[in-house]
Design a protein that fits this description.
This protein is an all-alpha fold. It is built from nine helices and no strands. Helix 2 packs parallel to helix 6.
Length: about 240
């Protein structure tokens, strides 16, 4: 009897959630997590770094597991499942290389970014449809937009500093970067004005962002784990708050 109940619960968990507010939240987090995964991968699998922080590798693994979980809960639509499966294969190749083979990292990271882009486009298309659900609150939409913006900013920062073979079309222009930064600041003001009861969480997230804001404007140097830590925490806190609303 217990086994039957557990199987039923698992079945319900894995039913497609397309078209409701919960699916919109999962699709938003799918987008953000994919950005975070690639950003962490560029920190750990950097051929210029001989002793990377293992926490970045743990982060990649964790984000990948979450992508698989969200795709499962959304019913495993092919347009989402295919790029996530491909990202998992590329990660396995990266993780299987020794530091002596680190010259292969950029080529594989480039492949990872290509699959990320496929997932991003598919998730964005599905999100546009799912967010039409009237049960999805305006606050959740605003928080989702901020989460995605911070994740995109982090990925762009790591892209600018990582030795990729081809960055064509991947890195934001200076004008785009400034526009994204301005939109993030304005959105924080809107969130704090509209949701004062959650000011403690929102101020913590904004402080994390502002702590690394100057660093995020850099166009020279090497990938850094500090920005990854603070912005990843900010993204996850926003996603958690969106779920409660």
């Amino acid at each position: 009897m217990r086994t039957t109940v557990l199987l039923c619960l698992l079945y319900l968990l894995c039913l497609p959630a397309w078209g409701d507010g919960r699916s919109a939240q999962q699709l938003s987090e799918l987008d953000s997590r994919s950005h975070l995964l690639c950003a962490s991968a560029m920190v750990y699998f950097n051929p210029q770094d001989r002793s990377p922080d293992p926490r970045s590798l743990t982060a990649v693994f964790h984000h990948l597991n979450m992508l698989e979980t969200y795709v499962l809960q959304l019913g495993q639509p092919p347009q989402l499942l295919q790029p996530v499966t491909a990202m998992k294969r590329v990660f396995a190749k990266l993780d299987g290389l020794s530091r002596a083979q680190s010259e292969r990292y950029p080529e594989l990271v480039q492949q990872l970014l290509g699959h990320h882009r496929q997932l991003q486009l598919a998730a964005a298309d599905a999100y546009d449809r799912a967010q039409q659900d009237p049960t999805l609150s305006a606050s959740a939409l605003l928080l989702n937009a901020q989460s995605q913006a911070l994740a995109r900013l982090l990925l762009d920062y790591q892209l600018r500093l990582y030795p990729l073979p081809d960055k064509g079309g991947l890195v934001l222009t200076h004008a785009q970067l400034q526009a994204l930064d301005s939109a993030i600041e304005q959105r924080f003001d809107s969130l704090l004005a509209a949701y004062s009861t959650h000011a403690e969480v929102l101020l913590k997230v904004r402080n994390n962002y502002r702590f690394v804001r100057a660093e995020l404007q850099q166009r020279k140097g090497r990938t850094q784990g500090g920005a990854e830590f603070y912005l990843s925490r900010a993204v996850l806190d926003l996603d958690e708050l969106a779920m409660t609303l």
